[in-house]
Amino acid sequence: MKKQLITNGDRWYKANLHCHSTVSDGKMTVEALAEAYRKEGYQIVAFTDHRKLIPHPELNREDFLALTSVELDGSDRRDENKKYRPTYHLNFFARKADETDLSFYDQDYMKKHYGPDAWNELIAKVSDRFLVQYNHPRWSLQDIRDFGPLEGLWGFEVFNTGCEEVMLNGWGEEEYIQMLREGKMLIPTATDDNHDTHPIGEPKNDSFGGFTMIQAKALTQEAVIAAMEKGDCYASTGPVIKELWAEDGVVHAETSGVCCICLRGPGYSTKHERAHGDTLTHAEFELSAFKEVPEFLYLEVADTYGKKAITRAFLQQEWEE
For residue 84, which of 75, 97, 73, 96 has the smallest C-alpha distance? Predict the structure, then answer.
């Protein structure tokens, strides 16, 4: 029996789930950003301006959705003599398009009570109103001790264009995999976190680097949030995962042209196919080739430019007949 993991169908939408405008510290207006992203083939932008939860229904079109969202933060201020301050940055994606209430958040409180406990309390308080994503672990100077204890998260940022541009360190997929090993089955996202300090088209511009593909029933806040919550999405900086399915003990992957397709579990055991150049578009992996049944599997692909795509983790019951 065929078990579909990623379907090759309609209504796949390209999204930037982390974006800053002149509403906070970005250099472009929401109007200009919406137009620029539409021209680049995006259908969704989450305007996650710092501590500003503002819907932008005026930007919505038949082919474009401004996702109501906000980025909240809290740096470690317990020791005023500390030179480098780790900082929590989390995106909150509203379930309802007209959400504006941020009364649950107190930045000074989160600074004074730095740590996962305060964030867990906050996330639990608003879980019926928001999906929550943890952002850029490396830029935040955090590790598994900081984000590992977080509960109630929906997603984890595995790539951040802004961090790649300024630090050459935009990937956080290893930190994401650590969370999977901790039993936190989060959704991977690739985002821009763009501020556009340098104009679009210049080498230092931080737009159009990472994106999340979302398969939703409609281009509305409610439908997109429902698809995100279900996990009908994957993260990418270039490659496209067209289809992923399991049948008769074999996992099949169909992709755009890449040089490597890799099926990974929680440990160091992987199954992969490689090619010279971006000529690989299909791979098959015998599940019996794994020494033991993995707790979960996820697909990662890469092209010759180093651009990658990564799926969420699929649990055993999702691929087994």
Answer: 75
